[in-house]
Write a structure and sequence with these properties.
By secondary structure, this protein is α+β, with helices and mostly antiparallel strands. Helices cover 21% and strands 37% of the residues. The strands form two sheets. An eight-stranded mixed β-sheet has the order 2-3-4-1-13-16-15-14. An eight-stranded mixed β-sheet has the order 6-7-8-5-9-12-11-10. The protein is globular and about 50 Å long. Residues 5-129, 137-256 form the VOC domain.
């Protein structure tokens, strides 16, 4: 069995200034930590780019008990083509709708659901109810799939996520009731990840990572990056394994013990992000 914990979803962002405004002033998230790297990640955390990049974690609370967003910025990259792979993140926050109105940020509607779009076109569906303070407002991440049965067999049968809801064309899965869920929606066509493709991350105990590795290998699944240790300057080293599901959605499993050390909230991160945005000449 895999005893995972939902951590975050990774977005590639081209406009760090406008992106920071959206997450802070519209969604009302906080900057939890900011990290700068001089060269590309060995596990392709910043995509297939061997350049300077940064990682900014934003969310409604500490990563120990909140599902957050990882904003990956590659210096000098000014645009990412979007595919049909990412459908949206759902949060409960009437306050976000009010902030969007105050900031003149468009609030759109689809099938009775209100949503706002982050720079780059990433959708955030908003449940129009007061934002909870005793639990995480982030409810689920929705990804496209081309064959729901095959995807559920992978996520449930191989990775051990529980099925919380199943319909003809969609399924909701997760590791625990109090965690953000993963929704898979069958779009009836191939999934195109284009250049803006993201990555969903979970943690699991250090000793369970080799079990995941063995299970995926036996099932002839895709392992994009075998078990590898990644360093963050001045912070904890973590071990990760990067997988790809049947539709090539990237999945990271990081060891929980080290990640809890790495992901401690940095009180200087908000100011650090602004400092690096101001000093960035790569978009000139």
């Amino acid at each position: 069995m895999v005893t995972g914990r939902a951590l975050h979803f990774v977005f590639k962002v081209a406009d760090r200034t406008l992106t920071a405004k959206f997450y802070r002033e519209v969604l009302g998230m906080k900057v939890l930590r900011h990290e700068e790297f001089s060269e590309g990640c060995e596990a392709a955390c910043n995509g297939p780019y061997a350049n300077r990049w940064s990682k900014t974690m934003v969310g409604y609370g500490p990563e120990d008990n909140h599902f957050v967003v990882e904003l990956t910025y590659n210096y000098g990259i000014t645009h990412y083509e979007q595919g049909n792979d990412f459908r949206g993140i759902t949060i409960q926050s009437s306050e976000a709708l009010k902030r969007a109105a105050a900031a003149n940020w468009p609030v759109k509607e689809s099938d009775g659901l209100k949503f706002v779009e982050a720079p780059g076109g990433y959708k955030f569906y908003i449940i129009d109810k007061p934002q909870p303070t005793d639990k995480d407002p982030v409810k689920q991440v929705s990804l496209a799939c081309s064959n729901l049965t095959r995807s559920v067999e992978y996520w449930n049968g191989l990775l051990n996520l529980k099925i919380y809801e199943k319909k003809d064309k969609s399924a909701v899965l997760g590791f625990a009731e109090d965690q953000a869920k993963l929704e898979l929606v069958d779009i009836g066509e191939p999934v195109n990840h284009a250049k803006a493709y993201g990555r969903i991350a979970f943690s699991c105990p250090f000793d369970e990572q080799p079990i995941i590795d063995e299970k995926v290998r036996k099932a002839n699944g895709k392992i994009l990056t075998p078990l590898i240790s990644l360093d963050t300057p001045g912070k904890a080293t973590v071990r990760v394994i990067i997988l790809a599901d049947p539709d090539d959605h990237e999945i990271c499993f990081v060891d929980d013990e080290s990640f809890r050390q790495l992901s401690q909230v940095d009180p200087n991160s908000d100011a650090d992000l602004d400092k690096y945005i101001k000093a960035d000449k790569s978009r000139a």
